[in-house]
Structures are given as structure tokens and as C-alpha cells.
Design goal:
Blueprint lengths: L1 E7 L3 E8 L1 H18 L12 H8 L1 H23 L4 E7 L11 E9 L12 E5 L5 H14 L2 E4 L11 E9 L11 E7 L7 H7 L7 E7 L16 E15 L5 H8 L4 H33 L8 H22 L3 H8 L3 H29 L5 H10 L5 H10 L3 H20 L1 E5 L1 H6 L1
Parallel strand pairs: 5-11
Antiparallel strand pairs: 1-2, 2-4, 3-4, 6-10, 7-8, 7-10, 9-10
Helix pairs in contact: 1-3, 2-3, 4-7, 7-10, 8-10, 10-13
């Protein structure tokens, strides 16, 4: 096979591919044999019809057209692999002439290449990470969360006003804009907790400051996109309320003592519980820290990306993300409408988010490849072959040969290069350890 590559405008190239006459003749022979086996010809057994009979029945040009299409589909990916091109989008084939027996066959194809972007800097990235072991603030935060889980509510004195940290027992009357009662909202006694997602924030704000025995009438307009459990379906509508505060309830947090720990967790002392918390926290941290490190490095790297993102790559990434998304939804048994309702978004917002995520995926890919070029990072044939081995395939060598024959091996090569670039970025990153729990407490 002979390949000529001509650079064009717009990051495109034209490949002129010449297939040797020997390969053309072999393809013709193979096609006639396949047709003789595939079709029935009167007077001949399957696979025994001669070429002239097949030409008379199907047309000689039909056979040659099939051979031509087959050669184009076979040799185009081989040429892409031979030239180590990273093609994006859909190739634009010219209008090739039909092949002729005993002659070389030449065809051309125009393709868009993945751009080789440059980053604003190739200095080591600076990232923040949590400490590798639990800090005092981490331990306190987890113990506080445990205590909060065991919080109870008790009736507060009559003069106590509702505050964000309190709960209340409320009597509800609710009507729509036409004055019709809304049965799903009405109740003589319902426990209400600020910010628990049962009601919109605008409703919670109206309850603040109420006291035991106090009644209040007000009207709220449920915000568009509201995701509250009881009123999400009423988004954009006005609802009239008459609320009576039966009693204000205040949180009671248990005291962290040896006796309480023994009764609820089975540890003899508070110190023993702390040791278990530290061990659990450290184990979880070791599990997630590599992913946090990679994410932070990628975020820092993308900040150095200032080039245009090819639309063809974004569209391909969008397609992949959507396919993965709907596969997950199907496995989870969740409909698309349910998913949107749970997150309080519409389909337009969903599409916008997917496009933004796809754009970030492409930026990450191009940025890692830019880093690899700058650092001279490449993928060896051994590393590429090893990818098929670690995939656990029954016959890795055969699958690799198929990928090479179909011009897809560049996908593996690029993946190996990006992985090695990521390893280099992480290894050279300038890390600042941050006590996030202490910062949050402040």
C-alpha cells in the first residue's frame, strides 16, 4: 500500500491511498467466491457458479462496485494506522473509480485531525489535598455527625420562637388560586423541619419566628424548578396557607460520654470510639485520595487550556456520555422524566449540562496529550499490547491484530499516552495539605 498525505486548511489532510494490483485481484477473487456461495444460480451448486454466470445474473459492475467499496473500507483504516493519525469526525471519501483487474487501485479521503493544542504552562501543577491521615478537626466533625444522628426533639417553652435549628408541630390549611382545598397539604398535625426538602425555602422562611399557638396566613408562589417533595409538582403556582403552630420543638443533642458510647456503639470508652473513627476515616481516605488527586490535577491542567475545542470531538463525547447515562438509568429502573424531576431541572438544562461535561472531557483529553508531547511521553508497542492483556481477553493477540487491521489501534495508543501523562503530572505536582474540616468549622 502506498500513502500520500497532503495537509489542507482547517486542520484537515487528504490521504491518497494506492492499493497494489495483487491485493485488487485477491479481493476480486474473494468477492466472486462469496457471491457464488451467497446466491443461487440455476444449474450450479452453491459456490460453483463461474464468474461469467455471476456477471450475467448480477452485473459485472455490481460485483466490481462491491470490491471497490470493500477495498476502501479495508485500506482506509490501515492507512490511518500506518500514518499514526488521530482522526475525528466523519471521513469524506472522494468518488473513486471502479477497480480494474490487474491494475493498482487509487482512492482519496479527506479527514479532520485531532488538533495539537498548547497549554499556557508546562510547569508542575499546584494542588490542594487533604492530609493523608485524620486530623483532630476530622475526628470532631465525624463525632459531631454521629451525635447529630442521635438528636431528638422535645417541646420548647411556649415563648420560644421557631429558628432554623428548631422543628415545629404545625396545623395546615391550604388552598389553590381558585380557593379549592389542597388535601395533600392539609393536616391537623405535621412535623415540620426547616430545610429538610419537604417544602420550598419560601415556605420555610414564612414559618421562622412563629410561637406556640400563633396562626398565620400567607401566600407563596412555588418557584419554577422547585424540587421539594410535597410541592414540587406545583412549581409556578400560587398556594394560600393558614398555619397554626401547635408547638415549637428544640433539638436535644446527646452528651458524648463513656456510658452513651457503650449503649449506642458497643465501645467501652469515648477514646475507643475515637480510635475506630480514625481507623475508618483513614481507610476511606486511602481509597478516595488517588481519585481526588487526579481530579485536582486535571482541574489545574484544564485552567491552562486556552484553545478552541473541536465541535466534532464534543459531539462524539456527548454521544458517549448520553449512551452511558441512559444505560445507567435503564439499569436503575429510573425514567428520564423522574431523573429530571428529582434534580429540579428540565431537558434543556440537562442538554446544557451534558454539553458542558463533554467539553470538559475533550479539554482534558487534549490537555493531557499536550503535556505528553511537551515531555516527550510516548506509548511503546509493548505497552499497547499489554492493554489487551490486562483487559482479560481470551485471545489478546487476536483482538489486537483486529484493532490494527481496522485502524483503531491509535485509540489505545492515545489512551496509554494520556495515562502516562497523568502519572507524570501527579508525580511532579506541588501539593499543599489542607485541613478541610477545620476550614469548614471556621
Amino acid at each position: 500500500m502506498e500513502i500520500k498525505v497532503e495537509a489542507l486548511e482547517g486542520n484537515k489532510v487528504q490521504l491518497v491511498i494506492t492499493v497494489p494490483a495483487a491485493d485488487v485481484d485477491a479481493a476480486i477473487k474473494k468477492t466472486y467466491k462469496e457471491f457464488a456461495q451467497k446466491y443461487s444460480f440455476p444449474g450450479f451448486r452453491k459456490g460453483k457458479a463461474p464468474r461469467k454466470v455471476i456477471d450475467n445474473a448480477l452485473g459485472a459492475e455490481y460485483v466490481l462496485a462491491n470490491v471497490t467499496e470493500g477495498l476502501v473500507n479495508d485500506f482506509y483504516p490501515k492507512a490511518v494506522d500506518a500514518e499514526k493519525l488521530s482522526v475525528i469526525g466523519t471521513p469524506n471519501f472522494g468518488d473513486p473509480d471502479l477497480i480494474e483487474a490487474g491494475k493498482d487501485f487509487t482512492f482519496d479521503v479527506t479527514v479532520e485531525l485531532k488538533p495539537q493544542v498548547e497549554l499556557s504552562s508546562y510547569e508542575p501543577v499546584a494542588i490542594e489535598l487533604p492530609f493523608e491521615e485524620a486530623t483532630e478537626a476530622d475526628i470532631k466533625a465525624q463525632l459531631d455527625a454521629m451525635l447529630e444522628h442521635y438528636q431528638t426533639f422535645e417541646d420548647a417553652p411556649a415563648a420560644t420562637k421557631v429558628k432554623p435549628e428548631n422543628s415545629a408541630d404545625l396545623a395546615f390549611k391550604a388552598t389553590d388560586e381558585e380557593g379549592n382545598a389542597i388535601a395533600s397539604l392539609e393536616s391537623e398535625s405535621r412535623i415540620w423541619v426547616a430545610g429538610d426538602g419537604m417544602f420550598p425555602e419560601v415556605f420555610d422562611a414564612e414559618i421562622m419566628g412563629m410561637k406556640k399557638g400563633q396562626s398565620k396566613e400567607f401566600t407563596i408562589e412555588v418557584p419554577e424548578g422547585d424540587a421539594s417533595i410535597l410541592m414540587g409538582s406545583m412549581a409556578g403556582k400560587k398556594v394560600n396557607f393558614e398555619i397554626t403552630c401547635n408547638v415549637v420543638r428544640k433539638k436535644v443533642t446527646p452528651e458524648l460520654t463513656d456510658e452513651w458510647v457503650a449503649g449506642n456503639f458497643g465501645f467501652d470508652t469515648v477514646e475507643a470510639l475515637k480510635e475506630a473513627v480514625v481507623a475508618s476515616h483513614n481507610a476511606q481516605l486511602q481509597e478516595v485520595l488517588p481519585r481526588i488527586t487526579e481530579n485536582n490535577c486535571v482541574s489545574a491542567l484544564i485552567e491552562r487550556f486556552a484553545s478552541e475545542v473541536p465541535a466534532a470531538m464534543v459531539e462524539e463525547a456527548e454521544s458517549t456520555l448520553l449512551q452511558e447515562f441512559f444505560t445507567q438509568m435503564q439499569r436503575a429502573g429510573i425514567s428520564f422524566d423522574t431523573y429530571l424531576a428529582q434534580r429540579g431541572i428540565d431537558s434543556a438544562k440537562f442538554k446544557e449540562d451534558i454539553k458542558a461535561e463533554a467539553t470538559d472531557v475533550v479539554k482534558q483529553e487534549l490537555a493531557l496529550e499536550a503535556w505528553a508531547r511537551n515531555k516527550g511521553i510516548e506509548a511503546t508497542d509493548e505497552e499497547i499490547s499489554n492493554e489487551f492483556v490486562i483487559a482479560g481477553l481470551e485471545n489478546p493477540a487476536a483482538v489486537e491484530a483486529e484493532w490494527r487491521a481496522t485502524g483503531r489501534i491509535h485509540l489505545i495508543r492515545e489512551g496509554v499516552v494520556r495515562a502516562k501523562a497523568m502519572e507524570d503530572i501527579i508525580a511532579t505536582a506541588e501539593v499543599t495539605r489542607v485541613d478541610y474540616a477545620a476550614k469548614e468549622a471556621e
